[in-house]
């Protein structure tokens, strides 16, 4: 088991033991299993998945730092982090569309474009996590 | 108003306390990196010395107060602390350059402090300082603080520091100790000093950094500086509402006492009038009967 903790400046979102977890890093997605070697990596925006006794938890995060410690401890310091059920799907979709428009508008300004692109990616991840939460809660809806 | 402040105070205090685990974890992480990479070497952690002898020692002070008053001595204490800092900076110049005798003699200029103000009270007070230069002003943050509040402030500070405009950056804010006690505090934001290094943990050499130690450190320090601002803002909000609640409670009590005193004088005067009239009537009656 891995002791897994997600902390943001506002709160500690999650602090429990998990069997495995998958995180988005700047170098790509990684999965941590027990006995992973110590690692410090930059967290990218995206979704964190973790497996706890046949149950899966999803979180949407937007950048931060990951530390894997030697004694099966994983700490995620995230700028923002949300549970799937906390995400307002409609507002996330609106934010994504706004970011998309902004990306088209600011195509000539690298800095503003990058900011808009980051916002777009963040909201895309939030929408994905919110959808997963829904299908997970009501598995028969889709079939 | 006491009740309104009490409700806001509870929220703000919880928010200030909720950020503590993050503070501990990020300090631990910095220590771990320091232990593993030997020494932390990052532009935001080095003191940048302006080479030219004509350059003044310049410091940036980020002053955090509230927008509204009625909070007891909270804002006055912050302004007094700011004046204290301006004096320290003025003297720091000598200490700072004393490594070289020749330079010391050449220098006659004194250290100057420039400001970023947060909250109307800071802006109003610092405008009255002699030759004060305010490079940016933000509205007071008395709601729940988010990283969107702290980020722009941290970005200005880091940008100016990295460009060697300022040699030191300070934050002056009311540190939240308890509902009754808020202490004006000066925090050195840059060069960034990580919390004291306690016993260095040896976790062996096998250790991965992704993408690289430098990039991870860059990421971490930027966040640590942003978080420092976040935390001071959260503490300032908790302090503001606590100070206001206490001030309002004192005002309530003082007003109550005043009402008691005035009621007593009023009743005495009224009773005096009644007694006088009664004795006049009885005197008149006695005179007529007599």
UniProtKB/TrEMBL annotation, chain A:
<keyword id="KW-0472">Membrane</keyword>
<comment type="similarity">
    <text>Belongs to the ATPase epsilon chain family.</text>
</comment>
<keyword id="KW-0813">Transport</keyword>
<dbReference type="InterPro" id="IPR020547">
    <property type="entry name" value="ATP_synth_F1_esu_C"/>
</dbReference>
<comment type="subunit">
    <text>F-type ATPases have 2 components, CF(1) - the catalytic core - and CF(0) - the membrane proton channel. CF(1) has five subunits: alpha(3), beta(3), gamma(1), delta(1), epsilon(1). CF(0) has three main subunits: a, b and c.</text>
</comment>
<keyword id="KW-1003">Cell membrane</keyword>
<dbReference type="Pfam" id="PF00401">
    <property type="entry name" value="ATP-synt_DE"/>
</dbReference>
<dbReference type="InterPro" id="IPR001469">
    <property type="entry name" value="ATP_synth_F1_dsu/esu"/>
</dbReference>
<keyword id="KW-0139">CF(1)</keyword>
<dbReference type="Pfam" id="PF02823">
    <property type="entry name" value="ATP-synt_DE_N"/>
</dbReference>
<dbReference type="GO" id="GO:0005524">
    <property type="term" value="F:ATP binding"/>
</dbReference>
<protein>
    <recommendedName>
        <fullName>ATP synthase epsilon chain</fullName>
    </recommendedName>
</protein>
<feature type="domain" description="ATP synthase epsilon subunit C-terminal">
    <location>
        <begin position="86"/>
        <end position="130"/>
    </location>
</feature>
<dbReference type="GO" id="GO:0046933">
    <property type="term" value="F:proton-transporting ATP synthase activity, rotational mechanism"/>
</dbReference>
<feature type="domain" description="ATP synthase F1 complex delta/epsilon subunit N-terminal">
    <location>
        <begin position="3"/>
        <end position="81"/>
    </location>
</feature>
<keyword id="KW-0375">Hydrogen ion transport</keyword>
<dbReference type="GO" id="GO:0045259">
    <property type="term" value="C:proton-transporting ATP synthase complex"/>
</dbReference>
<keyword id="KW-0066">ATP synthesis</keyword>
<dbReference type="GO" id="GO:0005886">
    <property type="term" value="C:plasma membrane"/>
</dbReference>
<dbReference type="GO" id="GO:0012505">
    <property type="term" value="C:endomembrane system"/>
</dbReference>
<dbReference type="InterPro" id="IPR020546">
    <property type="entry name" value="ATP_synth_F1_dsu/esu_N"/>
</dbReference>
<dbReference type="InterPro" id="IPR036771">
    <property type="entry name" value="ATPsynth_dsu/esu_N"/>
</dbReference>
<comment type="function">
    <text>Produces ATP from ADP in the presence of a proton gradient across the membrane.</text>
</comment>
<keyword id="KW-0406">Ion transport</keyword>
